[in-house]
Write a structure and sequence with these properties.
Structural class: alpha+beta
Low-confidence stretches: none
Organism: Qipengyuania mesophila
InterPro entries: ACP_syn_III_C, ACP_syn_III_N, Thiolase-like
Protein name: Beta-ketoacyl-ACP synthase III
Bound molecules: coenzyme A
Order of helices and strands: EEHHHEHHEHEHEEEEEHEHHHEE
Largest sheet: 9 strands, mixed
Pfam families: ACP_syn_III, ACP_syn_III_C
Strand content: 15-25%
CATH superfamily of one domain: Thiolase/Chalcone synthase
Keywords: Acyltransferase, Transferase
Strand order of the largest sheet: 5-4-6-7-1-8-13-12-11
CATH class of one domain: Alpha Beta
Number of strands: 13
Amino acid sequence: MSHDMKPTGRPVISSTGLFTPPETITNEELVESFNAYVERFNAANADGIAAGTIEPLQPSSVEFIEKASGIKARHVMAKGPILDPEIMAPRWPERSNEELSVLAEIGVKAARDALERAGRDVADVDAVLCAASNMERPYPAMAVEIQQELGIDGFGFDMNVACSSATFGIQTAADYIRAGNARSVLVVSPEITSGHLNWRDRDSHFIFGDVATAVLVEDAALAPAEHWEILGTRLKTVFSNNIRNNFGFLNRASPEGEGRADKLFVQEGRKVFKEVVPMVAELIVTEAERLGLEPQALRRLWLHQANAGMNRLIAQRVLGHEADADESPTVLDTYANTSSAGSIIAFHKHSEDLAEGDTGLICSFGAGYSVGAVFVRKVA
Ligand code: COA
């Protein structure tokens, strides 16, 4: 129907969608399981520890986790095996090629939510980008499977820029609209982070949670009356080893064996904190000014959800004062870090109350390093 409309080449966000896994793990449950694993390890290695050849493992703590990160709980796709001290990883029955993949399944749920909110018929959607930190397989692309399941006639591909995948996806979609190559693009971010988190690593076992989000980026001519104009987007990457995952088919390790740790998420958390905060704040301020926007006048910042302290510092540098929860909302307490989906969840849950003409910023950052900024204005 609306494809007969004359495209404007102006990209907008028509809607967002969210799928939240029903199961949650509280910090208390997580620490109890982790500490049971520590006790078992130390008991099993008591001789080596006494002889000084094996380092004893240290327990984790609920207080540390909440103070260091702001995280209180996380949603997961498979609670039982993650909390089982003998497994400590998500597990579910392997699916045949005829069944929908797990990542596609949750991506489709978030995408359907976004389509419904926009009142969008799939016949009007041209493309699907699956933008996430870890794909379930190299190919066929997850995006093409999601496209097929939704019944979209068009094209799709996967893209991975770790925690910045969704904002990089939004700019890519916006560029298709600007160039006239598509009029309606779904950016889907299914994040099963529990699969690449090392649940046995005390420094990071509390960080991540599972979720899926979707963002419908469209030409203004096609969009529903209420939408978010995309005022500008800016991306930046600078190579760093401080957040890294070496998993890959050229670089295999036995599942539980030696050399496994670096095939999962590893980071130098302190360095990340110190190096990424100034990089993000500078990119936001520079880009806001280039767009003719007062950074201090941004009504709301929907920042990447990795660490409450990082967001406090970034918001302070951008807004010029300590931001309250209304100016810089958090979903870390219930969702933890959901990689690229975090800033989209914050936007999805905390944007309806804004008034026509209000401006805001969706911003993600993470491994690469990478930063993606999407400036928006509410049109109602
Ligand atoms: N329970 C209890 N104590 C713990 C612990 C745990 N689970 N993990 C670490 N500690 C201890 C450390 O051993 C250390 O003790 P010490 O001072 O006696 O050596 C102390 O707590 C501080 O550890 P540190 O790793 O320096 O903590 P931190 O304050 O830097 O917080 C992070 C850790 C990961 C929460 C924080 O660095 C962070 O969020 N960084 C940014 C991460 C990020 O954005 N990554 C992007 C991912 S997409």
